[in-house]
Design brief:
This protein has about 290 residues and is of the alpha/beta class. The protein has nine helices and 13 strands. The protein binds NADP nicotinamide-adenine-dinucleotide phosphate. NADP nicotinamide-adenine-dinucleotide phosphate (NAP) binds next to helix 1, helix 3 and strand 5.
Length: about 290
């Protein structure tokens, strides 16, 4: 039996893992047992509770989907962002360490400053622009001090669950005649369901080969686009006549500075874990089948 704990399971990624986990009730030769928790059932800021939880439950993998993800509010709620994205990671690590539990921690492209012009590899220097990015980088460093950690950085996550750009544009383009969307920030959207499948594949491969390959990995869908391109594709698939206007970031000021370029290089995860990654347009089709 393999016991897999998912924290933050009511968020976008956690919900996708929950949706597809039944396909993975057998991993390698073992039966898989999943425990889905969120802030109400396993608050990762509660150190004592965490320690007790791992003392009384046998867990093989923790997938940490819990996070503070409000990028703009983080500029004001600095302490809260660091508490969830860094201090809570420390709490989890100190609770799982005695049992050598494997730790899969999710991070972000916002650890980079977005000044690159080639896709970011895992070993490129981080230099976050925002409080959110800084707090996530701090969380990564804490997680990587534990030798059984795998950090997966992803970008532009969307899902049929929760609030995200894809759902917002889908809704707005049926209500409005025009929308202004920035065209000078480029990256790659990631359908959270694809990332959920990749995480299962990673666990499966680790079990089959008896080798959990730790360290930092990048995962997003394939391809590159701007938020404007992404919005146009969403409007098209929504059969909307809404006109999408390209605007510059300077004309859409936000409290947190976003990276202008946040394309991730996925060669490492593809070769080490033998993962096939769908193109973002294919994944957007899959998302539209779902909503
Ligand atoms: N969203 C993106 O565009 C994006 C991009 C790149 C990377 N990421 C990373 O991907 C991961 C998953 O993101 P997501 O979009 O799925 O996030 P999400 O939808 O905001 O989900 C995060 C979950 O964590 C929960 N949580 C917060 N504090 C907690 C606590 N103390 N104990 C337990 N659970 C707690 C939240 O509960 P409440 O809602 O009740 O607070 C929420 O259910 C995160 O690490 C994020 O940084 C996200």
């Amino acid at each position: 039996m393999i016991n897999i704990l998912v924290t933050g399971a009511n968020g976008q990624l956690g919900s996708e893992i929950k949706e597809i986990h039944k396909k993975y009730n057998q991993i390698g030769e073992k039966q898989a047992n999943f425990i889905f928790t969120d802030i109400n059932t396993l608050d990762i800021s509660n150190n004592m509770f965490l320690k007790n939880f791992f003392q009384y439950n046998t867990i093989d993998y923790v997938i940490n989907c819990a996070a503070y993800t409000n990028v703009d509010l983080a500029e004001k709620e600095v302490e809260k962002a660091y508490e969830i994205n860094a201090q809570c990671v420390k709490n989890i690590i100190s609770a799982i360490k005695p049992y050598h539990i494997k730790f899969i921690h999710i991070s972000t492209d916002y650890v980079f400053n977005g000044k690159s012009f080639i896709p970011y590899t895992e070993d490129m220097p981080e230099n976050p622009n925002s409080v959110y990015g800084k707090s996530k980088l701090e969380g990564e460093k804490i997680a990587l001090n534990y030798p059984k950690t795998m950090v997966i950085r992803t970008s532009w996550l969307y899902s049929s669950f929760g609030k995200n750009f894809a759902k917002t544009i889908h809704k707005l383009c049926t209500q409005r005649e025009e929308l202004n969307v920035v065209f000078d920030q480029v990256g790659t959207p990631t359908y959270a369901r694809d990332l959920a499948s990749a995480i299962f594949k990673i666990i499966e491969q680790s079990e089959i080969n008896n080798n959990f390959k730790t360290g930092i990995y990048h995962y997003s869908n394939e391809g590159v686009c701007s938020w404007y391109d992404f919005a146009r594709a969403i409007a098209l698939k929504s059969y909307s006549k809404c006109k999408i206007n390209p605007i510059e970031t300077k004309d859409y000021p936000t409290p947190a500075q976003r990276p202008f370029y946040s394309v991730l290089n996925k060669n490492k995860i593809k070769s080490v874990y033998n993962i096939n990654i769908p193109h973002w347009q294919q994944s957007l089709d899959d998302f539209f089948m779902k909503i």
